[in-house]
């Protein structure tokens, strides 16, 4: 027979255990709902050198003479499209750097098969990638604003919404984002981002990792000025390595946390250099892991680009360049911290592939540095148009037709 | 007055709430003690392409023709010394790749000031780095074996224990580890690792990130064959950038998740290439983030190296090389997958620093590729010896004297 005293003791014991469990949950886990149990929000970045300051090592970049105004990072919004092996690490790096706002797009779920890349953890399997990412990122840095969209940007309605968020989803609602990062793993999604950014005149950066997991690249695209994704097929490093960078249906691509971590690292480094104005922003930086070879280059926009808006942006860019006095052009270039090195690749590769093999693998190719070739060749314009039964006047085609055309490629 | 019935009801309520709290902890957090709530251990790596297989994208490296025997990774042990910005990401990448065993060394605690680098989270502030890292890594991949040491390797007793664990802490207890990775942030710890590896003939890799956060490097050291840390001062890329790579007391070094992520990525990539035998293992790979410049090189051991065991390993290496028939040498080199390119750096740098500035900054320097200089110069042997009041016979000095000498440098 249990006495009242014994029961009261048991109640007290259980109450204590429950409090301890709740405290432990909030102290240990990274999924605590009550954000006050993590670090409080910080109104102003401080350079104070104390262990409790999450920004001390970033603000030190000013004292080291690298960045003039680090706090400016809080005013920027970056959209990350694709929150997989590269996109999730990209988002984490930007979050830890204290970016103002992140807009994340993905429609995938976390799977155990993703555990060979950084960021996601086994207990998140089954959650949507954007939901899981937001949860983790918020607990890492509550100062960052997050906006997530759990959808496929390539469907009609979603594409319209995607365009709207790129053009109006900045920190100041109604203003465009400052940069779009493509971290997707397929051609269709890249083309959708390309189409949107060409139409909006939105500067973006492309990233990619090869199917065999041992090469990757990043690329800066300034509509009208540099080659867009439709101006030239994606470039790949072709020394000893399979040329295919495009994800094929039904093929299980290999992936490595190393290659994806390096690509995310050089991508976000380029973002920081671009937004905070330090160093030389790369137009194209490749990573060949087999030989530790990092080709750089830049490519001008193609006047015959199949994208109508790209050609329109090129005209706009030419008009502005012509209007600008010579002196001003030089000054602005210096401000943008972008160094044009059209012919100084500065890198040589001892290729084990013969010139003939390269030619056979890539077909007619543009004038590229040794060791680089194109992933696929663009069909002749006339052939493509006639095959699709379209008129030459395809510049006036609707978005719907454009999407349909993309799917046929 | 509380009745027995009311008390019993309260006990049942509390018991249910406690169960729920414990279940929630295990479902949400990454710090669950009960590993059965995460994914079960896997006995044999499978190449099956299903969402629930955490190794499918790694095993795909075999199908892609990159790695011959990926499963071999489970037989290797890697020691990571320093679990900070580079070491923690290094350990995470190796964990996600399914390495057999990790031996972690660090004596620091997690601080909010570390949150600008990947891996640690704010709720871990105050925990020891090795404890926090093991917790997270175990939940990411329960197949990996972990051994952690929460101590400073540079004190006498700890150094002896460190040597013991390097020489006997392999997967098969009593066997040495397969590789030691230096991810420390100071000169003294690097010298301790160098001393231990020279004495043991243990192959290791060095890594480092500059104080201004925008450059870094990795280096492979094979005792007796390649330059050890005492053979030549650490090399830094000197184009436009401060030469100091050594952490100075009282200076708050800047750091970036990008640079540290890239350095960890190229480090672990080199580890995978070395252990699994694919691609070209780099002897030295630098990363200059300001200009996206990645110098490579190799350096032979210095016959005048101040480290007694280095000189001893050099003799041993020479003896073995001389004994080996010519044909065999070539074969073994191929097996090791290390390409010797003594004079083919393959990289040019358009330096904005004049030759005179480089010379002034680095003093008498070895024959290095353009754009690379040494971080500091070694004092003349006679001067150093007389200043310390030591005899020329310093090859017989004790470990204690060696440590004291290191501190004076």
UniProtKB/TrEMBL annotation, chains A, B:
<dbReference type="InterPro" id="IPR000594">
    <property type="entry name" value="ThiF_NAD_FAD-bd"/>
</dbReference>
<dbReference type="GO" id="GO:0071569">
    <property type="term" value="P:protein ufmylation"/>
</dbReference>
<keyword id="KW-0479">Metal-binding</keyword>
<dbReference type="InterPro" id="IPR035985">
    <property type="entry name" value="Ubiquitin-activating_enz"/>
</dbReference>
<keyword id="KW-0862">Zinc</keyword>
<dbReference type="Pfam" id="PF00899">
    <property type="entry name" value="ThiF"/>
</dbReference>
<dbReference type="InterPro" id="IPR045886">
    <property type="entry name" value="ThiF/MoeB/HesA"/>
</dbReference>
<dbReference type="GO" id="GO:0005524">
    <property type="term" value="F:ATP binding"/>
</dbReference>
<dbReference type="GO" id="GO:0005829">
    <property type="term" value="C:cytosol"/>
</dbReference>
<dbReference type="GO" id="GO:0071566">
    <property type="term" value="F:UFM1 activating enzyme activity"/>
</dbReference>
<feature type="domain" description="THIF-type NAD/FAD binding fold">
    <location>
        <begin position="55"/>
        <end position="306"/>
    </location>
</feature>
<keyword id="KW-0833">Ubl conjugation pathway</keyword>
<dbReference type="InterPro" id="IPR029752">
    <property type="entry name" value="D-isomer_DH_CS1"/>
</dbReference>
<protein>
    <recommendedName>
        <fullName>Ubiquitin-like modifier-activating enzyme 5</fullName>
    </recommendedName>
</protein>
<dbReference type="GO" id="GO:0046872">
    <property type="term" value="F:metal ion binding"/>
</dbReference>
<keyword id="KW-0067">ATP-binding</keyword>
<keyword id="KW-0547">Nucleotide-binding</keyword>
<comment type="similarity">
    <text>Belongs to the ubiquitin-activating E1 family. UBA5 subfamily.</text>
</comment>
